[in-house]
Amino acid sequence: MRSLDLATLLAAGSPGGSSCLTSTTALEPAGGRHSSVAPAKFADRAKKGGVYAYEQRYLGDESRYAVVIDSKQSQLNRAEVALAQAVEDGHPLLSRVPHVRVSYERDGAAEHYYDLTLPHRVYDGHIRAGSIDGQPATQTPAYRAVRDASPANARALLETSPVTLIFGGWDSSRRSRQGRWRSALVGEIVGFVSASRDHSGALQKPEAGLRGGARVDPVGMQINLNKKVMTEVANQQQAELSPTTHGEILKAANGIKAGEAKSASALGLGGIPPSLDQLAGVACDAILRTHVLSFATLRQMRFGAGVEGDAACRALLAALALNALARADAELFLRANCDLVEAEAPKVRLDQRGGAFADLEPLSIDAADLLLSEALAHAEKVADVTWSGLAMRVTGNPDIVSGAVEADEAAP
Amino acid sequence: MSFAIVAEPLLGTYRGHVGSGQLDPLPAPARLHAALLCAAAQGVRAVADGDGLQPCDADREALRWLEANPPDGITVPETLRNGDDATAYRKEGLIVKEGRNPLADKLIGKPAVSGVALTGRFAWTWEQEPPPPVATALSELCPEVPYLGTSESPVRLAVAEAEPTHRLDPDADLFVGEGLDLSVASSGRAAALEAAHREQSVAPPVKADAHRSSEKTTPPPVVTTGLQLGRYTRPEPPPPPTPWTSVLLFPMERPVPPELRVRYAVAVHRALVSLVGDGAPAVLTGAYGEGATPPSNRCAIQFLGPEAPHVGGNALALLLPREASDIDLTLIRMAVQRLRQVKVGAGPFKVAPPVEIPADQFWPEPAEGTQRWWQTEPVAVPDSRPPRGGKWSLADAAALSVALVWRDEFTVSGRGDARYRALAAAAAGRGVRVESAVRVMGGDLGRYVHKVNPDTVIQPYRGVLHLGDLTGARTIAAIGQSRHLGGGLLVPRDLPVEIARRLTQ
């Protein structure tokens, strides 16, 4: 089995190159195959409370139900966060990856956000609403060049926000010449679950199990406070509470009449009787993590560097995507009660057209770093690429930060 | 198959939307055309066009060929449709005022699960190989297509071999009948998409690029030029073998009343056995040696009234069973040529020399706008007593009778009552529906059967039923215990399509 090297990436980025690279990994619960895992929770359109996302899939030729353990969007977010973390940690190579920073000042403290983690990457509203050197960002030649970048020449993006080229981005509010970049990397983790079938053989959607929940307060299962004390305690904890929750508690306190007291459960006081209404884990008999890196997508980008130079730029982007993937795959902590381990080494296959494939060694973080450094050096040499870290400083629009609300309040 | 483009979904799912966001169950030929145009217009094969790109001449030629030659067939693998109430909320990257002051991020909820899962590959097939330059261009263009539908459904596209599951019906009336009505690119499609893209590619003036406090997504206009619908239909499977292969039809002078048909059929049966003489085959006599397994059906004798087809009047029909050997059939055919008169208690009757009609071309075609159902003539008699353990209706009995006639079409396990129930269920699985089954009361019920076990209760019934995909619309058949001797003949009862559809649901 050969290892993935720069020559392979250059060939894949050239005319006639591979369609894609796929990486498939069998996972299992860290506690053993008998353990359950907690899949991602989603909102339910039909009722209050979270639900798991079940969908029908084929495992081989067998129709099965699978539960989405980590969605495609979440998997990409993890890859982006892995890169962002490396930049944050001052990784000498990844710190050179061009990126855009939006800075806000809130309560006298500076806050920084990056195209690496903003939801719409370089086209995010926080960037478009901000300013660069005192000028609205959208009016500056540098940001206009980013927005005007097209498959015919994506150089401005390569040197400002390459993550937009590999994770995708859509300049969806622009009146015309919208940047529309499909993500070159996609992936997901799904777990196959058992499901019964009806008399016709059709699968019946599994029902998520429920588990009990309770809270014991050793001081008392119910703690009632009068108006004065509840108001004081709420104000003492104001920093820990969201504005909405704090406001609701004060409103409730104001409604308490003299001589009366009401439950302080909203302040975390008192017990909660047991109830069977929380989603339990899901037992899976097969968990698969799959990623696809599309070289066909990368080949739909040119950088004004000629055939060889453009191939070098694509190889650089592929190396960056693989680096993010290697870092994200190395951390299998997804969420509480969802600790997974790799049941076997990832199977990495490179399409070589015409039904031929090459099996490749899985990429470790060290190998991915080496590959990225070689790809960058080659791109510097043949495509005159310059990656020197922070490429665009944006001052955030103060109107926005003053209107920011906590995520849990914004969610419906 | 001469030429095919095959798409292999890499995550086992296809996700796409059509119209105003409805789930796309499969990528239509127009989507393939659009994906190839996209790859041609901005992939490595594209050529410079000002500050943009455009397809090279070879790819343009290939796209024009696709427009002039819609796929003759498509391959649709087994799919499972997904979608439920699980909703993923995400920030959309737009700053939207929407009544809030000051500004806030916009959250949008989308289904967490959508699309179809599939086992196998989609394919678009052509019966004729394209001209070599077109075939070459398509072979090289296909691997440049990264996705079909959304970017969440990456595919590997290639020119390969594939067998279609549905074929284009160029003469289809899209308002009548069934099939997959899919968007197909026609002449001018690529040019229209390119023109729209060029128009959308002009950078807006600097002022128009200014950030607005209330933003919304502005998707590009949908281009409908050069699109038409093509109907792809699944080829009708050949009808199963007919239980009886052909019919010897003897014209008669006068009709046989329904209540006398069994008696008359018995008389004809005796006459035929007598004419064949010693060594009359078991498929005619009904007497099988000990230990022999009787076939599903043997020679059946039925009577038709003044509307009998082919002879334009009353007729005696001798149905020849599929399971008969050539020797047996020859013996029977030779003997029946001598049948002229049949003696029966009510007085002898004469028949004219027979004509032989293929059983699957016996009845006339259904009238336009109708669907062929069948009515028992005069009555049918259940083949067995009701099985024990659970409900059993006359409709179940009718379904069982149908299953016993087409017994070779079913593989069911179990014995006795369990087998009867399984056969009735299996017939329902093939689309057999019983619209009505009304018991015939009063009179001598024995007139509808020839021999019956003394312990068995005879329950003759009149029924209207649909035979699903078990047989063609013109096939003659009979069901039930008396199907070989004057009972249970199925005669056409054509129902208006709308009514028939409701009944088959």
Largest sheet of chain A: 8 strands, antiparallel
| Strand elements of chain A, count | 21
Radius of gyration of chain A: 26 Å
Low-confidence stretches of chain B: none
As a whole number of angstroms, the C-alpha radius of gyration of chain B is 33 Å
Biggest interface and which pair forms it?
A-B, 85 and 76 residues
InterPro entries (chain A): CRISPR-assoc_prot_Csb1/Cas7u (IPR013403)
Pfam families (chain A): Cas_GSU0053
Protein name (chain A): Type I-U CRISPR-associated protein Cas7
Protein name (chain B): Type I-U CRISPR-associated protein Cas5/Cas6
Topology:
The complex is a heterodimer of chains A (412) and B (505).
Chain A: H1 6-12, E1 20-29, E2 41-44, E3 50-52, E4 54-59, E5 62-70, H2 72-88, E6 99-106, E7 109-114, H3 125-128, E8 131-132, E9 135-136, H4 141-148, H5 155-158, H6 162-167, E10 169-170, E11 180-181, E12 185-193, E13 210-215, E14 224-225, H7 227-236, H8 243-254, E15 262-263, E16 272-279, E17 286-294, H9 295-298, H10 306-330, E18 340-342, E19 347-351, E20 357-360, H11 365-383, E21 390-395, H12 398-403, H13 407-410
Parallel strand pairs in A: 6-21
Antiparallel strand pairs in A: 1-17, 1-18, 1-19, 2-3, 4-5, 5-12, 6-7, 8-9, 10-11, 12-17, 13-16, 14-15, 19-20
Helix pairs in contact in A: 1-10, 2-10, 7-8, 10-11
Chain B: E1 3-9, E2 13-14, E3 17-18, E4 22-23, H1 29-42, E5 47-49, E6 52-54, H2 57-68, E7 73-75, E8 78-81, E9 86-96, E10 104-111, E11 116-119, E12 122-126, H3 132-141, E13 155-159, E14 166-168, E15 180-185, H4 189-200, E16 227-233, E17 244-251, H5 261-276, H6 282-285, E18 300-304, E19 315-321, H7 326-336, E20 341-342, E21 349-350, E22 355-358, E23 370-377, H8 394-405, H9 416-429, E24 432-439, E25 461-467, E26 489-496, H10 497-504
Antiparallel strand pairs in B: 1-12, 1-13, 2-11, 3-4, 5-6, 7-12, 7-14, 8-11, 9-10, 14-16, 15-16, 17-19, 17-22, 18-19, 20-21, 23-25, 23-26, 24-25
Helix pairs in contact in B: 1-2, 2-3, 8-9
